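To illustrate the input format used throughout this study, we show a single complete record. The first block contains the structure-token representation of the backbone; no residue identities are included at this stage. The design step must infer an amino acid for every position from geometry alone.
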């Protein structure tokens, strides 16, 4: 694999002021493994408790599967994120910097202002009859109200279910129905990349099949006229103007639900992941501080949407629990031009920047110019999440964006894990481009073979987690049997991630892709990530997706979809060149049998390549493509079907 043996040492200037250096990481890791009770009894104090728990951990991955953390503790998540910072004299610090889609628009909200806005909406929701345990659906663009709505639910003990604002009426309806929400919070319209998104119109369409919804609270954002149904629809600003600015936080048990969030749907029908209050909050705060080495006063920006778990944990709950200034961006990386991310970094003096490989690859495709035009001097740490990052993209991020000054933290985790589990720590871990490196303290990963046998030392196989951590999901909402079946039945007694991984001689983890995507060529198991990374390492390739296809002799052959860099034309010559390139990079076993030029790849709304659809196209099984409701652009599929390589 290109550059996979490159080792980038910890930077002394980063280590010098880091919360955790290499020795401290080892000590923490050992202590959390040896004495989890003692370790977490201390770490749980990083959040505010109404009653501190005496019971720490109660987890059993067998039978009915039972996961409890801090069970007799009482708290309210919004107090950790708001009240205690004000009590500590930091009420005038900026909590949220909002950067609008239009480069001329931004706003700053202090902790004191955020507290008041949260309390007003909390009171308004109470007046609408929302009680502890009720479900509230949030379908908003990336505006401050999204964070306010989440925290207002937490304030009164309502369970929020955030649905990404880019989802269709059908996707919204199925999520509302699954968790039987009684209130929907939305906006007139959203803005993205210079276009508007008709959120209220989508909501109206969805609600035709959602009898559980009693009221719709509508934020006036763009000011576009929208129909308001009398008795059902209410304006946010009117409700909040009437509501009192103080609201006593509802005392919540540590194991009371905080939110439901549906997974991205890369592998099939989305699952309603349920997270509870105490363990999730401890994990959000712990991982945000360690992985991003967050220090007070720093400006932190995670580019995810609040509709994904990354937005929940690393735009809202983690940063706010840690008293950070968190940036919320309404727009997209490519509008008005491909410099936008870096312009925003310069404008707000961002110190920590966290994005996804899909964004990095898209920007890489445009060359270095749009990056070089900006300063980026404020940047200290870079992060990535969502898919395996190809070493080529990692190095581009490190060299071009961070100018070799900023460590890159490649963070592996899932909606189900609540927060980051495997990642470098900036002051502790030497980096290898393309590797998520080492587990965080409290995380016990394992690699098992097909029969569930634990492999020792350097090994490749299925990535499992051998013990619980505080941020783990507790159940699939309304379907505990599906929870047990999905995560604990493949390898009894272990949590199965669905991902494949390789552990090298240094104990570093390399995520090889989803296990369902592994290709078996003449008895050799090949991860998609490795072949894709080889293709992306070619100077003319911007992005690649590799799947298996039926092959008479080899069992499976390799079918590659390739997106070329801006300005490069496909040709028969280039096709041969790429085949030869992969043979040289990985070996003859990885020789692609077919290469299809793909102007664009089918991706989930969160930007992940949907290989299950590509697999069907490659196998010519295009009649039934499965659940495509979470696709960002369904038109891409038709184009690929039409140009399938025979
Ligand atoms: P679904 O479970 O509905 O199919 P999904 O798995 O895409 O959707 P998420 O929980 O958003 O939903 O994504 C988690 C997955 O993303 C991981 O299991 C892994 O496959 C991938 N992933 C996330 N971060 C990384 C990373 N740093 N390196 C490699 N893969 C990653
Ligand atoms: Mg998943």
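Output of the design step:
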């Amino acid at each position: 694999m290109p550059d996979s043996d490159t080792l980038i040492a910890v930077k002394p200037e980063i280590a010098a002021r880091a919360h955790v250096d290499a020795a401290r990481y080892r000590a923490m890791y050992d202590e959390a493994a040896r004495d989890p009770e003692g370790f977490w009894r201390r770490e749980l104090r990083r959040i505010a408790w109404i009653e501190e728990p005496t019971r720490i951990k109660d987890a059993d991955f067998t039978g009915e599967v039972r996961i409890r953390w801090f069970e007799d503790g009482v708290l309210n998540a919004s107090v950790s994120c708001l009240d205690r910072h004000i009590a500590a004299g930091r009420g005038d610090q900026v909590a949220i910097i909002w950067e609008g889609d239009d480069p001329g628009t931004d706003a700053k909200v202090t902790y004191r202002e955020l507290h008041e806005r949260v309390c007003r909406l909390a009171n308004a929701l109470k007046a609408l009859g929302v009680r502890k345990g009720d479900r509230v659906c949030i379908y908003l663009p990336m505006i401050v109200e999204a964070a306010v709505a989440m925290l207002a639910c937490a304030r009164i003990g309502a369970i929020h279910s955030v649905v990404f604002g880019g989802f269709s009426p059908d996707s919204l309806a199925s999520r509302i129905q699954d968790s039987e929400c009684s209130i929907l919070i939305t906006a007139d319209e959203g803005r993205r990349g210079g276009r508007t998104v008709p959120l209220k119109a989508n909501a109206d369409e969805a609600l035709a099949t959602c009898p559980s919804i009693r009221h719709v609270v509508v934020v006036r954002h763009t000011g576009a006229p929208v129909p308001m149904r009398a008795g059902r629809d209410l304006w946010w600003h009117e409700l909040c103007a009437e509501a009192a600015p103080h609201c006593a936080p509802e005392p919540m048990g540590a194991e009371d639900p905080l939110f439901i969030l549906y997974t991205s749907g890369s592998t099939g029908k989305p699952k309603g992941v349920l997270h509870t209050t105490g363990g999730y909050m401890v994990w959000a705060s712990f991982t945000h501080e360690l992985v991003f080495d967050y220090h007070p006063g720093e400006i932190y920006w995670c580019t995810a949407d609040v509709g994904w778990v990354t937005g929940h944990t690393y735009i809202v709950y983690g940063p706010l629990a840690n008293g950070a200034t968190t940036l919320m961006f309404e727009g997209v990386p490519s509008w008005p031009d491909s410099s936008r991310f870096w312009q925003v970094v310069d404008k707000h003096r961002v110190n920590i920047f966290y994005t996804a490989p899909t964004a990095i690859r898209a920007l890489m495709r445009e060359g270095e110019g749009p990056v070089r035009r900006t300063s980026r001097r404020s940047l200290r740490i870079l992060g990535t999440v969502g898919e395996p990052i190809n070493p080529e993209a990692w190095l581009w991020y490190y060299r071009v964006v961070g100018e070799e000054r900023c460590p890159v933290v490649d963070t592996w985790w899932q909606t189900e894990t609540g927060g980051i589990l495997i990642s470098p720590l900036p002051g502790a871990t030497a980096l290898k481009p393309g590797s998520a490196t080492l587990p965080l303290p409290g995380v016990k990963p394992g690699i098992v073979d097909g029969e569930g046998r634990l492999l020792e030392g350097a090994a490749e196989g299925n990535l499992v987690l051998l013990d619980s951590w505080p941020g783990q999901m507790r159940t699939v909402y309304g379907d505990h049997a599906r929870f047990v079946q999905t995560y604990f039945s493949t390898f009894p007694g272990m949590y199965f991630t669905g991902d494949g991984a390789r552990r090298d001689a240094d104990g570093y983890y390399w995520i090889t892709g989803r296990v369902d995507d592994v290709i078996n060529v003449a008895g050799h198991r090949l991860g998609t990530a490795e072949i894709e990374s080889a293709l992306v390492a070619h100077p003319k390739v911007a992005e690649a997706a590799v799947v298996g296809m039926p092959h008479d002799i080899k069992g499976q052959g390799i079918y590659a979809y390739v997106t070329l860099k801006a300005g490069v034309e496909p040709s028969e010559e280039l096709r041969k060149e790429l085949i030869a390139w992969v043979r040289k990079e990985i070996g003859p076993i990885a020789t692609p049998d077919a290469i299809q030029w793909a102007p664009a790849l089918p991706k989930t709304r969160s930007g992940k390549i949907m290989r299950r659809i590509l697999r069907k196209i490659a196998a010519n099984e295009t009649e039934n493509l499965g659940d495509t409701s979470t696709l960002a652009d369904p038109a891409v599929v038709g184009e690929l079907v039409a140009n399938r390589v025979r």
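Structural context for interpreting the output: Residues 111-127 form the longest helix (17 residues). The pocket of magnesium ion (ligand 2) is lined by residues 263, 267, 414, 498 (CB under 6 Å).
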